[in-house]
Amino acid sequence: MSVITRAEVQHLAKLARIELTDDELDHYSGQLDVILSSIAQISEVAADDIPPTSHPLPLTNVMRPDQVRPSLPANDVLAGAPAAEQQRFRVPQILGDEQ
């Protein structure tokens, strides 16, 4: 039994604003049917006592914690800038006044 019909694929293509030929509709409906059938098989096997996971292996954050350290003085940093104003880099305006 087909999980997704050709008409449903056509409707999805219309929603996504994708123009598909008749051959493409047949092709994609077959492919999507295989994908949805596979997902249905996995759902049948999945046990209620197994929590859903996003990855088969446990992941841990490998980044170091933030630590405050001394940095360059603002005057040294701004010394190499083409333009500075009020202890900040001065850059050309890219947006209008409509903010």
TrEMBL record:
Reaction catalysis annotation: L-glutamyl-tRNA(Gln) + L-glutamine + ATP + H2O = L-glutaminyl-tRNA(Gln) + L-glutamate + ADP + phosphate + H(+); L-aspartyl-tRNA(Asn) + L-glutamine + ATP + H2O = L-asparaginyl-tRNA(Asn) + L-glutamate + ADP + phosphate + 2 H(+)
Function according to Swiss-Prot or TrEMBL: Allows the formation of correctly charged Asn-tRNA(Asn) or Gln-tRNA(Gln) through the transamidation of misacylated Asp-tRNA(Asn) or Glu-tRNA(Gln) in organisms which lack either or both of asparaginyl-tRNA or glutaminyl-tRNA synthetases. The reaction takes place in the presence of glutamine and ATP through an activated phospho-Asp-tRNA(Asn) or phospho-Glu-tRNA(Gln).
Lineage: Bacteria, Bacillati, Actinomycetota, Actinomycetes, Mycobacteriales
Organism: Fodinicola feengrottensis
Class of this enzyme: ligase
Pfam families per UniProt: GatC
Subunit record text: Heterotrimer of A, B and C subunits.
Gene3D superfamilies: Glu-tRNAGln amidotransferase C subunit, N-terminal domain
InterPro entries membership: Asp/Glu-ADT_sf_sub_c, GatC
UniProt entry keywords in alphabetical sequence: ATP-binding, Ligase, Nucleotide-binding, Protein biosynthesis
Annotated EC: 6.3.5.-
Protein name as annotated: Aspartyl/glutamyl-tRNA(Asn/Gln) amidotransferase subunit C
Family: Belongs to the GatC family.
Taxonomic superkingdom: Bacteria
